[in-house]
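Lab notes, practical 5.
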Amino acid sequence: MPSRLLPRTLIHPFRRRPSIRLTSHSRSPSASLSTPSAPPSDPPPPSTHAIGTAYEHLVLRALTRLHFTLQHTGRSRDLGIDLLGQFQPPSLLSPLPVLVQCKHVPPSPSLVRELEGAFAGAPAGGGWRGERVWALLVCNKPATRGVLDGVGRGGGGARGMGFAMVDDEGVVRQLVWNAVVAGWLGDVGVGVRFGGEGEQAGKEVVLVDGGRVVRDWDGKGDDVGAGGV
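Output from the prediction step:
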């Protein structure tokens, strides 16, 4: 399982006051101050950019398990596209082009409106500018009703849109898509399984196809995990 997104806070030792000690040449009460080295300063907090980039890579690894094949774009003028690739569970004969926006913030309807711009920022080639394209918003908190409504409307048009929650442990906790995407995916749906330990305990999204759980994927053409199709 991927490591935590946010670095643990470093706890530094108690800062001692400068000590007073007798000189080696005298037993008189007169004393000299030692000059200890300066204690280490607290490291600066990670920048918003660093947190966002780390989260994008975390999302890439998390979605790979669910049969997404994605790459980090790192492009300028991409209108917010962070990951680019395809979605192809076993029963889907042709891969579905996917555009992903990652936001390490609580989701809001304004982010859904921003997601609409991802279609315009898609690169030429690869099928990302066609009508059969899925734009996916990923946040580290669950979707609100306003977000679900916005995704359901498809940006006010017949656009394939969806939402996923990937927490800071890299666990996919929520995955939904609108009726447009559902029409492309046929019998593919979403279920949940319960397990994990510690902070990773709880429900985790799994793919379901024809009522059977789809095996996890390792991104290299091999299925992993028990059961499924």
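Observations recorded by the TA: Confidence is low (pLDDT under 50) at residues 1-34, 220-229. The two ends are 23 Å apart (CA to CA).
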